[in-house]
Design a protein that fits this description.
- With about 325 residues, the chain is mainly alpha-helical.
- The chain has 13 helices and two strands, in the order H-H-H-H-E-E-H-H-H-H-H-H-H-H-H.
- Strands 1-2 form a two-stranded antiparallel ribbon.
- The chain starts with a helix and ends in a 5-residue tail after the last helix.
């Protein structure tokens, strides 16, 4: 509620300020669906209002002696700054390229690497280099130092997956809120010794505090959606999408539910896979599998209206979230 109220207070002046700074609004892809050109002039960097509301409310309500809170905030704000730089370059150069991909990825890896090492130091010794396998009771895979690249894969992968999904009004932010709700519940269970023992899931002392951050994410997401609902008054931009995906990936690593994130956030996975399949198919055969990638653009090209795609994708996100939560009990 705090994050939601902060978002409602800062959104109107921030939208006016961003409109004033961004004369032409977010650049629209020239090769994108024709329907998107009507959105020209809409300001971007709306992720700033999410970052501010989530960070402030977390600092107000969370236990600041908890390292998991600081790790998650570091990744969220760090990835948000990377996205801000990307959005800024797109606006100033008036194109859709932004930061070079290699620089963006390197910055994500550096921040994620610090977070991964910090998580290893903060987790209990019997879990700090392990991956938990959902559905199977007390089953872990020991990775050793390979845990660091594994954590990087999850954090960077989740960050970019949300970024790819953010292409239609409201499309990414609702699945982000759904995933945040799921991981708020999961983090509370994982941080409670009695519940974790009963459900036979990993017990990570202190991780329950992340439920506060997840709650703030829901509030910030709903506050942003109020202004991003079609027709959008503002876009999230990479400032928001990279940050939201990164923090969800971080929370999943801390709670030892990385594989469950792939289910709960299955919509983000589908969007990412559609891009990979499209690129690989075109390079190998010269043919495209989809009319356009990511997947939501394929359905636009097929004639689906934007609200239809968004609502149906939300339904898919809800179903996948329920399947992901079911793994807590199916053991």
């Amino acid at each position: 509620m705090t994050a939601l109220l902060i978002c409602f207070v800062i959104a109107p002046p921030m939208i006016r300020w961003l409109k004033k700074l961004q004369k032409g609004g977010q650049p629209i892809r020239e090769d994108g669906p024709e329907t998107h050109f009507v959105k020209a002039g809409t300001p971007t960097m709306g992720g700033l209002m999410i970052l501010i509301s989530v960070t402030v409310s977390t600092l107000l309500w969370a236990n600041l002696s908890n390292p998991f809170i600081w790790i998650s905030l570091m990744v969220m704000v760090g990835y948000g700054l990377i996205g801000f730089g990307d959005d800024y370059l797109k606006l100033t150069k008036r194109n859709t390229k932004g930061l070079p991909g290699k620089i963006k990825l390197l910055a994500q890896l550096l921040i994620g690497g610090v977070a991964a090492v910090w998580i290893m130091g903060a987790l209990p010794g019997h879990l700090n280099q392990h991956v938990s396998i959902p559905v199977l009771k007390d089953t872990y895979i020991f990775l050793g130092l390979l845990f660091i690249p594994w954590a990087l894969l999850v954090m960077v992968g989740a960050s970019n997956a949300v970024n790819l999904t953010d292409g239609l009004d409201g499309l990414a932010i609702v699945p982000v809120a759904i995933a945040a709700a799921c991981f708020g519940f999961i983090s509370y269970l994982v941080g409670n010794e009695l519940f974790s023992e009963y459900l036979r899931i990993p017990y990570v002392i202190g991780s329950g505090e992340l439920a506060i951050l997840c709650g703030a994410l829901i509030g910030g997401a709903m506050g942003f959606l109020w202004y991003n609902a079609p027709p959008a008054m503002i876009f999230m931009g990479d400032t928001g999408s990279l940050a939201m995906g990164g923090v969800l990936g971080t929370i999943s690593v801390i709670t030892k539910h990385e594989l469950v994130l792939a289910i709960v956030g299955g919509l983000f996975v589908l969007e990412t896979v559609s891009v990979i399949v499209q690129v690989v198919s075109f390079k190998l055969t010269g043919k495209r599998v989809f009319a356009m990638a990511p997947l939501h653009h394929h359905f636009e090209k097929k004639g689906w209206s934007e609200p239809t795609i968004v609502i149906r994708f939300w339904i898919i996100a809800v179903i996948l979230a329920l399947v992901g939560l079911a793994t807590l009990k199916l053991r």
